[in-house]
Specification:
This protein is mainly alpha-helical. The protein has helices at about 5-15, 20-30, 55-65; strands spanning about 45, 50. It is elongated and about 45 Å long.
Length: about 90
């Protein structure tokens, strides 16, 4: 029987050139949940900390025709326009 700890498994993946779990999680966080494309430097962060492409948020706001809500958690966003977001 081979003794293999979790740290050993992580070492094996990093040595084989396969992405680590942390890198995969980071890549997921850096994608817009609406279009699933990689976020760029113009991405907007909502107060709930969900992050989106500017173009996706604009389309979302046009679609709902009312107060902007987070497309993921539906938390109200208290700004007049997408451009006012950080």
């Amino acid at each position: 029987m081979v003794d293999c700890s979790i740290s050993d498994v992580g070492d094996v993946f990093s040595q084989t050139g396969s992405p680590k779990i942390e890198e995969l999680a980071l890549a997921t966080l850096l994608k817009c949940p609406l279009c699933l494309k990689q976020l760029d430097s113009f991405a907007k962060v909502l107060p709930c900390q969900h992050t989106f492409c500017v173009s996706c948020l604009r389309r979302w706001q046009e679609k709902v025709h009312s107060q902007l809500l987070c497309p993921v958690c539906r938390l109200p966003v208290l700004v007049r326009s997408v451009e006012d977001l950080p």
